[in-house]
Amino acid sequence: MAAPANTVKPKTSPKSIKFLFGGLAGMGATVFVQPLDLVKNRMQLSGQGSRAREYKTSLHAVVSILRNEGIRGIYTGLSAGLLRQATYTTTRLGIYTVLFEKMTKADGTPPNFFMKAMIGMTAGATGAFVGTPAEVALIRMTSDGRLPADQRRGYTNVFNALFRITKEEGVTTLWRGCIPTMARAVVVNAAQLASYSQSKQALMETGYFSDNIFLHFCASMISGLVTTAASMPVDIAKTRIQNMRMIDGKPEYKNGLDVLLKVVRNEGFFSLWKGFTPYYARLGPHTVLTFIFLEQMNKFYRIYFLDS
């Protein structure tokens, strides 16, 4: 009688390392793409309400920011961006990796596309809740420079922003826009994490790719494009809710649906994809860099700690 097949799963890194690497990968990517995040947020707020549209194109936004705020202005909100990654990305990638491994069969067969999407949505929603305070600070800090000097909030860094928001508007304001933020994360992670895994698997099966940085790059760019198209309408709702002020004692928007309806009515249907270029230019490289950093950290950990 033949011996039973070995069904013992290969050794993997501890859960704490998965969470740590997820956060470090996201933070490393943010250092490179923060200017694109700034431009994306400014574009999404441009033309809001009765205001004239400030920026005609992404290039116009970059030139205006550099002219009015200087070279440092293009990195406004970096501290909030890093904290966002330290909270949101650490949580989502850590949870995704843990659940992905749990759903992988003993023979190494990965979960199917539907299961990847479900894992991604679960990880994304949880990460978004944890990261919403940093997200609120990021949106406000990156949008401040477009306002007249007497209307600016003037946060000096992310911790100053969180402290002042809590003191001036109450602690619950830190989770303003939490529902659309979680909805965006569900869409982003279902699209991004699942399409990355699926693209990587499909490219490998062609026989033209091996598991290296070029494969990670191609899979990430495909994933970024899918994610951008799917998530932009939810993202613009999130951005405007988190940046809104009270008007005559009432909030500017009731909820995410109210944002979408007002954008379509006042600015046109395709304004839901306003800032598509900087969004993809930011999301594509951020996805690429995050997964490249993550894959490389996992690779070195396996070499020096698991296989040694």
UniProtKB/TrEMBL annotation:
Subunit: Interacts with SMIM26.
Family recorded in the similarity comment: Belongs to the mitochondrial carrier (TC 2.A.29) family.
Name the record gives this protein: Mitochondrial 2-oxoglutarate/malate carrier protein
Gene transcribed to yield this protein: SLC25A11
InterPro entries noted in UniProt: MCP_dom_sf, MCP_transmembrane, Mito_Metabolite_Transporter
Keywords, sorted A to Z: Antiport, Lipid transport, Membrane, Repeat, Transmembrane, Transmembrane helix, Transport
Function of the protein: Catalyzes the transport of 2-oxoglutarate (alpha-oxoglutarate) across the inner mitochondrial membrane in an electroneutral exchange for malate. Can also exchange 2-oxoglutarate for other dicarboxylic acids such as malonate, succinate, maleate and oxaloacetate, although with lower affinity. Contributes to several metabolic processes, including the malate-aspartate shuttle, the oxoglutarate/isocitrate shuttle, in gluconeogenesis from lactate, and in nitrogen metabolism. Maintains mitochondrial fusion and fission events, and the organization and morphology of cristae.
GO molecular function, one term: alpha-ketoglutarate transmembrane transporter activity
Reactions catalysed, as given in the entry: succinate(in) + 2-oxoglutarate(out) = succinate(out) + 2-oxoglutarate(in); (S)-malate(in) + 2-oxoglutarate(out) = (S)-malate(out) + 2-oxoglutarate(in); malonate(in) + 2-oxoglutarate(out) = malonate(out) + 2-oxoglutarate(in); maleate(in) + 2-oxoglutarate(out) = maleate(out) + 2-oxoglutarate(in)
Pfam families recorded: Mito_carr
GO term, biological process aspect, one: lipid transport
Any Gene Ontology CC annotation: membrane
Transmembrane segments: 19-39, 113-131, 213-236
Solcar repeats: 17-102, 111-202, 211-300
Localization terms from the record: Membrane
Topology within the bilayer: Multi-pass membrane protein
Taxonomic source organism: Pygocentrus nattereri (Red-bellied piranha)
Lineage of the species this protein comes from: Eukaryota, Metazoa, Chordata, Craniata, Vertebrata
